[in-house]
Write a structure and sequence with these properties.
The complex is a heterodimer of chains A (370) and B (110). Chain A has a single domain (2-21, 67-173, 187-218, 255-368), classed as Up-down Bundle (Na+/H+ antiporter like fold), CATH 1.20.1530. Chain A is 78% helix and 0% strand. Chain A is built from 15 helices and no strands. In chain A, helix 3 (40-62) runs parallel beside helix 10 (218-232) and helix 3 packs across helix 11. Chain B is an alpha+beta fold and 110 residues long. In chain B, the strands form two sheets. Chain B has a four-stranded antiparallel beta sheet with strand order 2-5-1-6, covered by helices on one side. Chain B has a two-stranded antiparallel ribbon with strand order 3-4. Classes of the chains: A mainly alpha (370), B alpha+beta (110).
Chain lengths: 370, 110
């Protein structure tokens, strides 16, 4: 009862917080067909500033903290990132009308981390005066990269297996259906494209390029840059005068854009299987609870703070919406982007920000006995 | 003196920009022009006007001038076979005449 009360109290506070307010506001004005457009260039800049600020905060504080405490949460972050993909592979993929490749890509996106969701969680933790380790935000890449790599590798192994299965049938059929084509003619049908593709494409997945691409993504590279600058240089002056004061205002603009995008993607989601909707609502909680449980183990073993446990749970609950989609689009081209980006942006992110953050903070407060 | 040329136009997803640029360069074209576009195709509406934070929605349009049809076709084939099963895209070719262009050599040489 006590916990439920805390959660509800938190939820009402969260509903009134600018973060969620702007997110829902963006959805509403998009639903009303508003002509408001925030230029794309500004979104790019906001993402850079937010993640640089988070990186700087972590970097400045890492200087005087014990990094050995980071090892266990880091290992847990990697484990969660990998597990999430397999959960999707063996639950979502088994549902009717869901293509396995789409399900794996969705798992990869939900395993990856959303910088904006993390920013919202950090803001709320500060508002609630819950202490957390400064380096907790640096767990981001340790969950993000393993999830994307696992998803792309698993999907390609699955596709290669499937291709070997169909290739033997295809050669049989081809000998019957092949009509002579003039030299230099274009492949005119999808089947011809496909047969040409099969000759050219029998690739083993290379893991290193995926890691490189993730690290070069706009969100992660900004955060790592901030971390490095925070550790190696003395950026306090610019941090105090520029990055820190603007942080919340920029976050509110980004939330508005995300709300608008979430609404515009809902239509796409209607075209794919309805199961994605169920998955997107349930998955953030399941993933977050797994991470929360592991975080509690770290809490008892190494004294990982409850605020840190909440951050670990929130980044597990979040699904990437900035750097994840392009990486997956390139890594698993045959997966349908409407399915996984729609599931993540339209439902996953709003659920993670609106429900999961207050839920896990309430859970931590109930356990902390406040 | 106008030089006859072929203009190859490729409209496809922005994520492929670097990969297609590489194909065009390797085919031996002297240059290309890229612009951001939006519009409607067989897959869905992909316009640049929608709210978007991950840049997976934008389209690009390449224009490549080649002196002969063979080079244009080899670029088109490679792009289509490599990408067009999984990505949105269209390729078409037009006749063009280059009036001014320093590095462009027509069929008769520079």
């Amino acid at each position: 009862m006590d916990f439920l009360f805390l959660f509800l109290k938190d939820f009402v506070i969260q509903l009134q917080s600018p973060t969620l307010g702007f997110l829902i506001g963006g959805m509403i004005i998009a639903a009303l067909g508003s002509e408001l457009v925030i230029p794309e260039a500004i979104c790019t800049l906001i993402i850079f500033m937010l993640l640089t600020k988070i990186g700087l905060t972590g970097g400045i504080a890492i200087r005087n903290s014990n990094l050995l405490d980071m090892v266990l949460p880091m290992i847990f972050a990697i484990i969660v990132g990998v597990i999430i993909v397999f959960i999707a592979r063996y639950t979502l993929a088994k549902l009717p009308k869901v293509k396995t490749v789409d399900a794996i890509a969705t798992g990869g996106l939900f395993g990856a981390v959303s910088g904006s969701t993390m920013a919202a969680a950090l803001t709320l933790l500060e508002t609630q005066k819950i202490g957390y380790e400064a380096w907790a935000a640096a767990l981001y890449p340790f969950m993000d990269i393993p999830a994307l790599v696992t998803a792309i590798v698993v999907a390609n192994i699955y596709l290669n297996k499937k291709k070997r299965g169909t290739a033997s049938d295809a050669t049989m059929q081809e000998s019957y259906s092949k009509q002579p084509v003039a030299a230099g003619d274009y492949p005119s049908t999808r089947q011809e494209y496909r047969s040409q593709q099969q000759d050219t494409k029998d690739h083993r997945v290379k893991i290193w390029p995926i890691i490189q691409e993730s690290l070069r993504g706009p969100a992660l590279s900004a955060m790592l840059l901030g971390l490095a600058l925070g550790i190696l240089t003395k950026p306090e002056s610019v941090y105090e005068s520029f990055y820190n004061p603007l942080f919340r205002g920029l976050l509110s603009i980004l939330m508005l854009v995300m709300g608008m995008e979430a609404w515009s993607r809902l239509g796409e989601l209607r075209k794919v299987a309805q199961w994605y909707v169920a998955y997107s609502v349930v998955a953030p909680f399941v993933h977050g609870l797994i991470a929360f449980g592991l975080g509690m183990i770290a809490h008892y073993v190494t004294g990982f703070s409850l605020g840190g446990v909440v951050i670990l749970a929130v980044i597990a609950a979040s699904s990437s919406d900035i750097s994840g989609p392009p990486t997956l689009r390139a890594g698993i081209p045959s997966a349908n982007p409407s399915a996984y980006i729609g599931a993540s942006t339209a439902i996953g992110t709003p659920v993670a920000i609106g429900l999961c953050i207050p839920f896990f903070i309430g859970l931590a407060q109930a356990i902390g006995g406040r | 003196m106008a030089k006859p040329a072929k203009k190859l136009v490729i409209v496809t997803e922005k994520i492929l920009l670097k990969k297609i640029a590489k194909i065009i360069e390797e085919a031996g074209a002297t240059g290309y022009t890229v612009m951001e576009t939006g519009g409607k195709g067989s897959r869905n509406v992909r316009s640049s006007g929608q709210p978007n934070v991950s840049d997976t929605q934008a389209n690009v349009k390449f224009e490549v001038l080649t002196s002969d049809r063979d080079m244009a076709e080899s670029i088109a084939d490679e792009v289509a076979v490599k990408f067009f099963l999984d990505f949105a895209g269209v390729i078409y070719i037009c006749d063009a005449e280059v009036l001014y262009g320093h590095s462009f050599c027509g069929p008769e040489g520079c």
